[in-house]
Amino acid sequence: MLSAIIALSALAIVFGLVLGFAAVRFRVEEDPVVDQIDKILPQTQCGQCTYPGCRPYAEAIAKGEADINQCPPGGEAVIQSLADLLGRDAKPLNEDHGEHKDKLVAVIDEQVCIGCTLCIQACPVDCILGAAKQMHTVIEDECTGCELCVPPCPVDCIDMVPVKKELSDWTWPFPETPQEKKP
Amino acid sequence: MTTHKLWRFPGGLVLDGHKDMSMQDAVMIADLPPQLVLPLQQHIGEPAVAVVKPGDRVLKGQLIARAQDYVSASVHASSSGQVIAIEERPIPHPSGQNATCIVIETDGEDRWDPDKTPSGDYQTLDASELRNIIRDAGIVGLGGAGFPSFIKLNPGAGGSIDLLILNGAECEPYISCDAMLMQERPREVIDGLKIMRHALQAKYCLIGVEDNKPDAIVALRGALSADETKFIDVVTVPTRYPAGGEKQLIKVLTGKEVPSQRLPLDIGIVCHNVATAAAVHHAVTLGEPLVSRVVTITGENLEQPRNLEVRIGTPFSSVLQQCGWHPKSNDQLVMGGPMMGFAVTSDAIPVVKTTNCILALPAPQRPSPVAMPCIRCGECARVCPALLLPQQLYWYSWSKDLDKVQDHKLFDCIECGCCAYVCPSNIPLVQYFRFAKTEIWSQEKEKRKSDLARQRHEFRLERLEKEKQDKEERQRLKKEKLRKARGEKSETPDPKKAAIQAALDRVKARKEQQDSGARNVEHLTDAQRKAIAEVDERRKHLKTDPPATPSTDPQAESVTEKKTDEI
Amino acid sequence: MKELALILVSTILVNNFVLVKFLGLCPFMGVSRKLETATGMALATTFVLTLSSVCSYLVNEYLLAPLGLEYLRTITFILVIAVVVQFTEMVVRKSSPLLYQVLGIFLPLITTNCAVLGVALLNVQTQHGFLESAVYGFGAAVGFSFVLILFSAMRERIAVADVPVPFKGASIALITAGLMSMAFMGFSGLVKG
Amino acid sequence: MPRSETGQIVHDGMWGNNPALVQLLGLCPLLAVTNTVVNALGLGLATTITLIASNSIVSLIRQWVRPEIRIPVFVMIIASVVTIIEMTMNAWFHELYLILGIFIPLIVTNCTIIARAEAYASRNHVGLAFADGLFMGLGFTAVLLVLGAMREAIGFGTLFAQANLMFGEQAHWLTITLVEDYRGFLLAILPPGAFIGLGLLIAVKNVIDKRLEEKRKTVVAVPVVDAPAT
Amino acid sequence: MAGIGRNMAISAVLLGLFAMVGTTLLALTHERTAPRIAANQRATVLRNLHVLVPPDEHDNDLFSDVIHVTDERHLGSENPLPVYRARRNDKPVAAIVASIAPDGYNGRIYLLVAIRYDGSLAGVRVTRHLETPGLGDAVDERKSDWIKGFTGRSLQNPNSKGWKVKRDGGEFDQFTGATITPRAVVKAVHNTLLYFQRHRDELFAKPATTTAADTTQTENR
Amino acid sequence: MKFKNTLSSPHITASPSLTRTMLWVVVALVPGSAFYVAFFGTGLLINMALATLTALASEALMLRLRRRAVLPFITDGSALVTALLLALALPPFAPWWLPVLGTLFAIVVAKHLYGGLGYNPFNPAMVGYAMLLIAFPREMTAWLPPTSLGATTPEFLDLLNYSLFSILPADSTYDSISMATPMDTVKTRVGLGETISDIHLSSPGLFSTVSGTGWDRVNLMFLLGGMWLIYKRVVAWQIPFAMLSTLALMATVFWLIDSEQFSSPWFHLFSGAAMLGAFFIASDPVTAATTPRGRLIYGAGIGALTYIIRNWGGYPDGVAFAVLLMNMAVPTIDYYTQPRVFGEERN
Ligand SMILES: Cc1cc2nc3c(=O)[nH]c(=O)nc-3n(C[C@H](O)[C@H](O)[C@H](O)COP(=O)(O)O)c2cc1C
Ligand SMILES: Cc1cc2nc3c(=O)[nH]c(=O)nc-3n(C[C@H](O)[C@H](O)[C@H](O)COP(=O)(O)O)c2cc1C
Ligand SMILES: Cc1cc2nc3c(=O)[nH]c(=O)nc-3n(C[C@H](O)[C@H](O)[C@H](O)COP(=O)(O)O)c2cc1C
Ligand SMILES: Cc1cc2nc3c(=O)[nH]c(=O)nc-3n(C[C@H](O)[C@H](O)[C@H](O)CO)c2cc1C
Ligand code: SF4
Ligand code: SF4
Ligand code: SF4
Ligand code: SF4
Ligand code: FES
């Protein structure tokens, strides 16, 4: 009986020493998965995932607190990439968080804008230009379409409009799938 | 004449030519249409920028849109008349989308711009001068891709290249414009070739022509002077689609393979189309920019298929009518050949520089066959000239696995269509590949945008953090000041400390001033500042009585000031 | 020598751990969605399985058996395995982030792979010697890796097939595993034992 | 309709996050011993007991474990629990042991147990951990039973064959012969049958889930139904 | 470096502690249960043996009157296998040999072969096998009565030509579609009989070994 | 004026068709099947009929369930090919439920659960066959003796009676009608320690100079049909070539080592399902490797496994299992045998 306890405890202590040593000696700070997840997210920073931005959501996914289907701007493509990265099965977008829409950009109606700077404070990517009491303008190329600037505007002068498609942005349509049922 | 040793490119197909039907008549000049529609972008690269306004009168050959960037090409009026609009019009593009075009109402005089100047003897010009002339003439590859030709006339770091190939293969069925050109105007082709050779300092030239164009071969050979035969050889290549593909032709003529995803230039070879050569001849020797080209108008739906020399900008309907066309709405109208061209949805679109053929095919006999699933029979791989596995590319394109599809070398696909031609399951393979390619590009673009957004977001977080710290610091200082004011003189005033304090106060004062202004105008990039400037400019034009004009608002002044001194 | 070769053939093909013996199924199903991850898992498992097969043999032979503590076998073996895995993970993670990318996230999964304990216990049960234990562990791991890699490549293909919706995912994967094990029955009779 | 915490646990264990059908854990014993219903029942019970015990203990000691020794500690706990159960049964419930005995060492390696310890018990207090163990165990057992029944019925044409082994001699009546003179369908009993059977079960679950989802949606979408206007 | 030391110590102590507690519990349980388990095992073995040689036919303790013998050719294993000896009034009654049929369809088939002193079979049972359910597993007494067909047979009944399955020209039935398993069992029983014939008196003469190795126990897989 | 936009080039096609491909396969099966009927009686036709009916019915049913277009798929001929090949693999003397169950399993599980034509990773016919072999080993190993051998060969009506109602012809028993195939016989008896010449001597008439009586001729016809398919480019030459040459090579090596233990290469090439397997089964494009090099590896793998299973495995013929085993490896093989693309360095 004693021999059993001693033998196994000794073994465990040795193992404990080894692991304790290894834990310090081989410590790694950052969780590389978070970076990888963050890279996949669309960086719209819209908060529809219920996290204050893409990175916090990435952290939540890495910790296993959030599911991978909560980012509407990313849509199927992001879910698929996350599933690939994390070795899970892809699932449909959780509609509680919103729908996947075509990309929009904000446009400020400069005739109406009163220059209150409220939208500037809301924009997560600092892409609204202007100063107090001046009309503001959105830098179209940098706007992520998160719509966060829309609600704060006291005079409702911000519209979300679809991104203008250039010829060079055109993508060939996906052919009709061969299995489709033909009437 | 020695017979040239030939090699074989992998894959490929022997197709029915259908070329004779459009080669009955000589090339004629097409009728002048009442309106010419000239898209600003008819080439690979950046669109040109219009240099005329609606209402301007223009002469044939006059520059109406200037090349914007290095990879870009100018556009010239292809007849004389008046610019009536610069607006969105349908253009020949697989998307069926519109794009900005200059619309000219012709005056019927077809008057050349008197300023056009022949450059005289090309041999007196050096390579870069030649390239400038060709560039200004708006010449792009007429073989299909429409890549600005002057770029391809740059011999690269070595200063000279080994071999200049003129591509006269014209391997696609139905098309005969190059054949007619070679047959009727062999000298133009050869003269253009010599100019190109001069620009490239090429050691040797080959003109590759498929053996189904014996007349063209005879004409070219006949036109060569004894001297020219020393460095130019007209080579008959077997008729096998796509022998006219640049890489395939190079393989057939030299046995060399252009390395995957590289340019022929990398192995000391440059390849141009025969019509491009003729256009170069026109530009250099006659001073005429690219305003027209030979176009094959053919197909079973025409009474009189033929080749016409068409002014760029002429609507399809106009040229088709000249060939006896009775449109039915279920016809197929294709720009380019049946293997590589794209179907167009309207006959209002104009002929552009890359329009080598307009094909009016009847509607398919049967209702178009149902695409069945791929059975992995491998026929497609057998005929693929790029030695790809189209069945695998299809599988991954179908499943939108964009990584795997690149693993399988999607970008080596030349979209020749051989695979789809033979597929027993009738799968539109090429469309899947084009879908995947464009999708990859667009995702890369998205990725770049999202990276930018991440940077800017992180930057903003940093800024907010800093502001928070600053604010705390200010409050602390304020308190300290208050304490001091209350006369707590526990310490003797230290001059050093006082100096620091003064500095801090200054900083604070400035910060406060800044806070009351716009918050996010620090750390701007050049582009953003440019954007701001543009916006301000726009406002100046826009506003008559704004709530606050930049010029009268002192804070706005300070904004501009800070912009300059803080960066 | 022939004995060892037979053990190898038997563990890899005839008595394949996954498809015939039903061991290590959870990682087999769990990390076979992609060929790359499966390859990573295969490498990690091969390493750990061989090592822990040997380690548990040593612990059994030199600690438990002399002291007559056979009843502690399970707990000791699983402790040894867990520590081997944990240690390997930490070392790999620090010393080669690249390798960790490939293997790292799979290592903890291996502890819960019952093939590892299975090998240790089966070694004792069949009274394998040192070399036999090593070969048995290695063979089991290679057999596991072999089918895992083939399976993952198949799953990649099936993932994009037009599978009826209710069968998508785990369901069709299990059916595929079933058909694979049916194919493996073709090996039955090759080696008796 | 928000669920209470225990309601959620019950739902998760028995259906939504069922260890066998959804998490795909514990597959080895699941597939290995479901030749017959009786085998399945035996393993299910043994697993449930172990799950409850290990979940509770892990939850109790969760404050004291550090990340680097977490896994070794958990597996030691599980192994101890299993060994103790095994020895106890062997000594005092020997008859039962003879039937379930061979499954018990298998339980140590059942990944459901360590997975629950890691994912749930080490983050929740004892009461919840206990409930989680119970319902995960029951959920697992339920799948075992269904799969066992399926394979036995198709493979042998019987149900509860050899029930006497588990419930004593008087339990012979439990055995149901579904088809007289059934020639047997070996495939169901062999490994391929196990895999395919579980695959089919998961597909069935997917179908049911989809139906439920559709129902939920229509309930939400359709407003209060009025009586037809008269 | 101090950090490492401290960390090592904490981990070691914690892990050691858990191991100690766990092992203590295990050891205690083991102490309490070991005798009962031994008794249970003994009872189980005895029950298996008594099926073949009923208690009223002998008066010795079968479980402890055991020797271990090795004969790979006849008993199918290179390891020692137990032979339980039944005696009545110190006279040999029967021997129960735990022999192995090595060439079953899926591996070894473990047998208990009870042979009366006169060389006739008192009975045969399969204690452990991996044969295919529904095909080869009919050798299991719970699945079919086939195995009971050996009772009363001996080396003379039938003669050595008859000790084969019918398909190979012998007297024993095979199962439809599964010849390998019965072939293996018939061969193993025959070999065991041969072994017994050769070593009969020697077997009963040897003194019993002290501990009974439990090859008859159903081990886990 | 607006026009139809069929979108992508090419705008012309060679218009070959899937159905035609499948029908070529059916046609190529005719000579072999005819010889088969001549040698082993008309049981094959019953099996073919049952399997075809089941295949078409289950295919239609599955397409309906999956809400897919029924007509184009049911007429593509692939289910027919599956059914015929499965029927050819079954013993010609079988109860009706054998072909029916096998085909059902093949079409429903092996084909449509994966998405139907083109998506199945395993050869459906062989999945059906292997399933039957595993589940009903007795029925699956009882063959009829060639007509040349016994007067007992049942007539068509007898066979039909047996198939549908399990009624054996008067005064015969199951065992008296059926027998093991020559290959099975050799394997069992070599396993019992006999030599090949003994076996040949003791079973006169069962063996011909090449392989088994009847079997040699049937295999020859399948070889001819297969060559025609290669000529028609329905089948890629690599697979049959690699499979048969590997099989022949291994057989030769072992035969040279000990010709009393191991059958001759001729025997291996012309008995069992060797030719049918090489030209019609291994070559199923959907489940075979698709790269040129991959096809060689795939075929060679099947050849080697066939030989191994035939000689040392537990089942009578190895082709089916070999095909299934190599089916498993196909995605991996395809992945690692991508050809050099145009312009890449040769290495
Ligand atoms: C994006 C792009 C960049 C190119 N860059 C060069 C270049 O730098 N120099 C050059 O000589 N040709 C260049 N080319 C031209 C190609 O070599 C080729 O001649 C042209 O794309 C037309 O070929 P194709 O009709 O066979 O597609 C470029 C082409 C593309 C599409
Ligand atoms: C499949 C394929 C077929 C082609 N066929 C021809 C052809 O017949 N004639 C031709 O001049 N260019 C053909 N091209 C374009 C050439 O590859 C190459 O772009 C052209 O010869 C370069 O000359 P350019 O820049 O003067 O147009 C083809 C390209 C592809 C991809
Ligand atoms: C999956 C499977 C399992 C089998 N299991 C056994 C078995 O356990 N015992 C046995 O004797 N034969 C078994 N067989 C049958 C053998 O393969 C072989 O066909 C048979 O034993 C030879 O008997 P026969 O000579 O009566 O045809 C099994 C067959 C299959 C397909
Ligand atoms: C050359 C060739 C061989 C075929 N061989 C088989 C076969 O062995 N088994 C089968 O089920 N189907 C076969 N088919 C039919 C078809 O490909 C098969 O049903 C698909 O696997 C179904 O997706 C074959 C088809 C062709 C063209
Ligand atoms: S929903 Fe998506 S885009 Fe929006 S913040 Fe969350 S992760 Fe970023
Ligand atoms: S401008 Fe508005 S929509 Fe655009 S990124 Fe900023 S807050 Fe979002
Ligand atoms: S030709 Fe068509 S069916 Fe054949 S492999 Fe290629 S894509 Fe598939
Ligand atoms: S289109 Fe692309 S894949 Fe198809 S044959 Fe041409 S190069 Fe090959
Ligand atoms: S139970 Fe999960 S790996 Fe075996």
Describe the structure in your own words.
The complex is a heterohexamer of chains A (183), B (567), C (193), D (230), E (221) and F (347). Chain A has helices at residues 2-25, 32-40, 54-63, 75-86, 118-122, and strands at residues 104-108, 128-129, 137-138, 158-162. With 183 residues, chain A is mainly alpha-helical. In chain A, strands 1-4 form a two-stranded antiparallel ribbon. The longest helix of chain A is centred in the first third of the chain and has 24 residues, at 2-25. The radius of gyration of chain A is 25 Å and the shape is elongated. In chain A, 41% of the residues are buried. Chain C has 193 residues and is mostly helical. Chain C has helices at 2-14, 25-30, 35-67, 73-95, 97-103, 107-111, 114-125, 130-159, 170-184. In chain C, helix 1 (2-14) packs parallel to helix 8, helix 3 runs antiparallel to helix 8 and helix 4 packs across helix 5. With 230 residues, chain D is mostly helical. Chain D has helices at residues 5-16, 27-32, 37-61, 67-92, 94-100, 104-108, 111-119, 126-156, 163-167, 186-189, 191-221; strands at residues 158-159, 176-177. The two termini of chain D are 34 Å apart. Residues 224-230 of chain D have low confidence and may be disordered. Chain E is an alpha+beta fold and 221 residues long. In chain E, a hairpin with a 2-residue loop joins strand 3 (91-104) and strand 4. In chain E, strands 1-2-3-4-5 form a five-stranded antiparallel β-sheet. Chains in contact: A-B, A-C, A-D, A-E, A-F, B-C, B-F, C-D, C-E, C-F, D-E, D-F, E-F. At the B-F interface, strand 15, strand 16, helix 11 and helix 12 of B face helix 1 of F. The structure holds flavin mononucleotide (FMN) (3 copies), riboflavin, iron/sulfur cluster (4 copies) and FE2/S2 (inorganic) cluster. FE2/S2 (inorganic) cluster (FES) sits between chains D (25-28, 109-111) and C (23-26, 113-114).
SSE layout:
The complex is a heterohexamer of chains A (183), B (567), C (193), D (230), E (221) and F (347).
Chain C: H1 2-14, H2 25-30, H3 35-67, H4 73-95, H5 97-103, H6 107-111, H7 114-125, H8 130-159, H9 170-184
Helix pairs in contact in C: 1-8, 3-4, 3-7, 3-8, 4-5, 4-7, 7-8, 8-9
Chain D: H1 5-16, H2 27-32, H3 37-61, H4 67-92, H5 94-100, H6 104-108, H7 111-119, H8 126-156, E1 158-159, H9 163-167, E2 176-177, H10 186-189, H11 191-221
Antiparallel strand pairs in D: 1-2
Chain F: H1 18-40, H2 43-65, H3 71-74, H4 78-89, H5 97-111, H6 124-135, H7 137-140, H8 156-165, H9 174-177, H10 182-191, H11 196-202, H12 215-231, H13 238-257, H14 265-269, H15 274-281, H16 292-312, H17 319-336
Helix pairs in contact in F: 1-4, 1-12, 2-4, 2-5, 4-5, 4-6, 5-6, 6-17, 12-15, 13-15, 13-16, 16-17
The structure holds flavin mononucleotide (3 copies), riboflavin, iron/sulfur cluster (4 copies) and FE2/S2 (inorganic) cluster (FES).
